[in-house]
Amino acid sequence: MILGQEASPEALHNLRHKLGLDKPLSVQYFDWINDVIRGDLGNSVRDNRSVAQTIFKKIPITLELAFLGIIISIIIAIPAGIIAAVKKGTWFDYSGTLIALGGVSMPSFWVGIMLVYLFAVKLDILPPSGYVSPGEDLSENLKLMIMPSLSLGIRMAAVTMRMMRSSLLEVLQKDYIRTAEAKGLPRLTLIIKHAVRNSLISVVTVVGLQITAFLGGAVITETIFAIPGFGRLIVQSIFNRDFPMLQGSILIMSAMVIFVNILVDLSYSYLDPRIKIGGGNV
């Protein structure tokens, strides 16, 4: 791919030696690990760009998409989950359950296509695709990011809403909640100040796990909406057979997932003071 179809055997041999492809696989692997430790992920076989520099230029775009999607999902899911739990067995609870099941069942790429059809084709109120940096034009950036963020956030909102409902229902059955209610603590204060906070540990866990789905969904969503982010870079690397770029992208994605899981674990001690980072419940 680098030298072209008409490359001579001598040129191929020299390039294989330069890239270290004439070494045993085990040696190639440890050479690659040594380079990764030094921050060198190699160069693209398509245009010789630095893999590390290219990836870190794309990551902020995907992080913006993920952040907006998470904000949308939380704004929808937390209030809906609380109301569904407080009004258990009512029409709101059943309606929320039905909507949540629909949200879980719809893949993000289908939601994205439907959003484009509705808001860009039929209503013509949002641009169908593209990307503008927020530093260049914040208003245009938000317009372009609304539909991609919704396509990712709707599914996460459905999962988070169901978890919020079930977790809050469980907490509301605890003895300390019934005791506080018997003492005459206002219902709203009881739910918001005591019950909701203790319900958030399960919700935060689900949100943290959904980050992985967000990164996977971004691969498809960025392709649909022509967003030049990290996910689209992975798709282009696959189509171009750019293995160094793909390998570096998967490595960074894995590191991001591990980092998010660590943050989720650290957040437990903030949400529940009984949990200490040093170990276990007190």
Please describe what this structure looks like:
It contains ten helices and no strands. It is mostly helical and 282 residues long. The protein has two domains: 1-40, no CATH class; 50-271, Orthogonal Bundle (MetI-like fold). The model has no long low-confidence stretch (mean pLDDT 83). The protein has helices at 9-19, 25-37, 51-86, 91-105, 108-122, 138-172, 175-182, 187-224, 230-239, 243-271.
What's the helix and strand layout?
Elements: H1 9-19, H2 25-37, H3 51-86, H4 91-105, H5 108-122, H6 138-172, H7 175-182, H8 187-224, H9 230-239, H10 243-271
Concise summary:
With 282 residues, the protein is mainly alpha-helical. The chain has helices at residues 9-19, 25-37, 51-86, 91-105, 108-122, 138-172, 175-182, 187-224, 230-239, 243-271. It has two domains: 1-40, no CATH class; 50-271, MetI-like (MetI-like fold).
Helical stretch count? Answer: 10
Helix content: over 70%
Number of strands: 0
End-to-end C-alpha gap: 60 Å
- Radius of gyration of CA atoms, rounded to a whole number: 24 Å
CATH architecture tag of the largest domain: Orthogonal Bundle
Query: How many structural domains are formed by the residues?
Result: 2
Low-confidence stretches: none
Largest sheet: none
Remind me, CATH topology of the largest domain?
Answer: MetI-like fold
Q: Shape from CA axes? A: elongated
Query: CATH superfamily of the largest domain, called what?
Result: MetI-like
The portion of residues forming beta strands comes to under 5%
Supply the CATH class of the largest domain: Mainly Alpha
**Structural class of the secondary elements?**
mainly alpha
Strand and helix order = HHHHHHHHHH
Average pLDDT level? 83
